[in-house]
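During the no-cost extension, the postdoctoral fellow (Dr. R.K.) reprocessed legacy sequence entries with the updated structure-token encoder. One reprocessed record is reproduced below for audit purposes.
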Amino acid sequence: MRAFGLSEAGPVRPLNEDRFVNAEDLQLFVVADGMGGRTAGEVAAGVAVESIENFVRRSHETSDFSWPFGVDPTLSLDANRLKTAVHLANRRINRLVEDQDDYCAMATTVVCALVADGHLVAAHVGDSRLYLKDADGLHQLTEDDSWAATVLGAKTGNGSAPAVRHVLTNVLGARPDTLVHLLERPLAGTDKLLLCSDGLHGAVPHDTLHALLASENDLETLAQKLIRSALDHGSRDNITVLIVGVGDGDHGA
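Re-encoded structure tokens follow.
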């Protein structure tokens, strides 16, 4: 398995508040899109990716750890690990929000993928997305926690006014508790995963994403093409892409 991530501030914003983790040794991949102005968004996203990686790493290396939010017996061990990691990130960010006035409005989205033995476990909060490119096409595996998707029932929200489309209904850090969406599914050796912030998927049409992912196997080149496509389509937000090649084929590192 190989992965490559790339993040770009974009043409408008002075700071890049996106963060990502490419932990190939754990087969853990995370993208977070912070919000809150000044440096707060970047703090929230940084805390999120750090907290998630730390718990997944700790729970991978030893069985001597606690489950502060309990264990769901209907989920696999890896799904419980990822769910707990995201809840811990939410709690840590929320405590910073409560304790420091400068962080009163900060929060972040997050999307995570944990792969083991050809099996995908994913978790997300907010509108950062996970896509799967397989032999049948490109599939959006996550559904946005946005006003358009949650209230209006539009998966992409492209038919809604932008002001409505970008209103989030669920993020990390805003409340002591948050809803963590989970999914599990098998993967094939030729699959690609794409984790991204809305700076990419909010600008680039689905068909264009599919064409790019289908046309290029070198992951670094593909990441550069995706960022360039977002800029060419007028993205004004921070843009982050993290691409995972599931098989051992000719994917670039």
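The helical segments are 40-61, 77-99, 147-151, 162-165, 198-201, 206-215, 219-232. The two ends are 9 Å apart (CA to CA). The remaining legacy entries will be reprocessed before the final report is submitted.
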